[in-house]
Amino acid sequence: MNIVFLIALLAADPVGCPKTIQVKQQLAAPVAGWTAASDGLPHQLAGLTFFDGKPEEKASLAPDAEAAQRNQTISTWKFDKARPTWVMCQYSGTSVTLTRELPRGTSSCQVTYARNVTIAGLPVIESVNCK
After folding, report:
1. How far apart are CA 100 and CA 79, in angstroms?
2. I need a labelling partner for 51 at 20 to 30 A (CA). Which of 42, 58, 59, 81 fits?
3. Within its chain, how far is the Cα of 109 from the centroid?
4. Where in the chain does DSSP place strands (E)?
5. What is the mean pLDDT of residues 37-58?
6. Percent of the chain whose predicted confidence (pLDDT) is above 90
7. Which helix (H) or strand (E) covers residue 59, if one does?
8. CA distance 55 to 4
9. Per-residue pLDDT tens for 57-68?
10. Does pTM surpass 0.90?
11. Concatenated DSSP letters for 26-38?
12. Angle (CA) 40 43 49, round 5°
């Protein structure tokens, strides 16, 4: 991959949620009469949540604007550049999430969702662009 293209891609999407993750889930305690198994399938990206501060502080942010287009919905979040903004990537079929702080100075993110395609009941994320 062209290094200039890769740098431009990372600059546009500092969120960078992996499209899929592999997890090892297991029962916390056996269930009588049942055998636990895993299907081994990867878990697909199903959602994003932005936070004002660390996710443990539970200050999730609602979009500041939403625009519906023919087959897409575009949600826009605006951030206080003086405060740390974190993002959480959520995946289908698991409670495992990935979190990280966005680069300081990120002022907004725009997420484009498919209107007619879902994963785990949520619209598919088509793209993420941040400034």
Report:
1. 15
2. 42
3. 12
4. 20-21, 43-52, 65-68, 72-78, 85-91, 97-101, 108-119, 122-130
5. 94
6. 82
7. none
8. 32
9. 999 999 999 999
10. no
11. --SS--TT-----
12. 160
